[in-house]
Amino acid sequence: MQTKECTEDICEQLCEHPQIICIAKKESISDSEAQQVAEIFKLLGDPTRVKILQVLTKRELCVCDIAAVIEMGQSAVSHQLRLLRNARLVRYRREGKMAWYSLDDEHVRSLLSQGIDHIKHR
Amino acid sequence: MQTKECTEDICEQLCEHPQIICIAKKESISDSEAQQVAEIFKLLGDPTRVKILQVLTKRELCVCDIAAVIEMGQSAVSHQLRLLRNARLVRYRREGKMAWYSLDDEHVRSLLSQGIDHIKHR
DNA sequence: CTAACATATGAACATGTATTCATATGTTGT
DNA sequence: ACAACATATGAATACATGTTCATATGTTAG
């Protein structure tokens, strides 16, 4: 990790291009923003979660049905659903012993379908 | 990992909802598609790479400038750039000892800006 | 109340990944 | 040819993450 002085008017580096660095820094997002953006994509960055989210795109499903559809164990699915629930990407409601999950974020629906389109057209 | 029988017309399970599972399975994406989609999002799922891609959104930069802008070591940046290069998310050209990197995928530009929008509006 | 069931969760394990350090590769100027 | 430089890369380390197993929680039917 390098720490470089880089004020508005005085930029003293060796190899780098001081002005460009200064401008680019101002246009760059903050650490915390980058972290938050990465957090969302990280959740979309696992095949199991992609499959879960994709099937929830079509309809609300209960846990055991999700597990059956994507052919994974109930526990694995439940753990992943917890992550998605915490990030508010899925909504869930209890109905007796069943827990019904559905997509809870139109942004994510859109990101997901863009991701799927992306790999289909290339 | 559970493996369940699930043909077109005969669905025999215990707790699950057979018809829904059959329909949902047909609408679900394949393992390899889910894998590929996850691969893309996984690349977007790291704060360092988010920052790199975001600064490359604005302009082409050389490695040492990227490192200076995002305040990371040259080696770390270079390693990440290799991943992005292999996935063809960034283009690069050599100019003497310098290597200039730029965004090479409009889909990714769009995904990235959607991701950034998403965390900004909530 | 009890048994059967659906879901959630903690612990353990294996695997993947990001950064750092040291060094290699390849270029430029002298 | 040599020194300075920009970038790339292999190895090592530390850390994060996904799945499984066992079990806990909470609900329904009898």
Characteristic key phrases:
DNA-binding (chains A, B); 6 helices; 3 strands; Arc Repressor Mutant, subunit A; transcription (chains A, B); disordered N terminus; DNA-binding; mainly alpha; homodimer; elongated; 122 residues; 11% strand
Can you walk me through this structure?
2 copies of one chain form a homodimer. Chain A is mostly helical. Chain A has a domain of 77 residues: Winged helix-like DNA-binding domain superfamily/Winged helix DNA-binding domain (Arc Repressor Mutant, subunit A, Orthogonal Bundle), CATH 1.10.10.10. The first copy, chain A, has a 3-stranded antiparallel sheet. In chain A, a hairpin with a 2-residue loop joins β2 and β3. In chain A, α4 crosses α5. Chain A starts with 17 loop residues before the first helix and ends with a helix. The N terminus of chain A is likely disordered. At the A-B interface, α1, α2, α3, β1 and α4 of A face α1, α2, α3, β1 and α4 of B. The structure holds a DNA duplex (30 and 30 nucleotides). Chains A, B: GO terms for molecular function: DNA binding; DNA-binding transcription factor activity. Chains A, B: It comes from Pelosinus fermentans JBW45. Chains A, B: Keywords: DNA-binding, Transcription, Transcription regulation. Chains A, B: This is Transcriptional regulator, ArsR family.
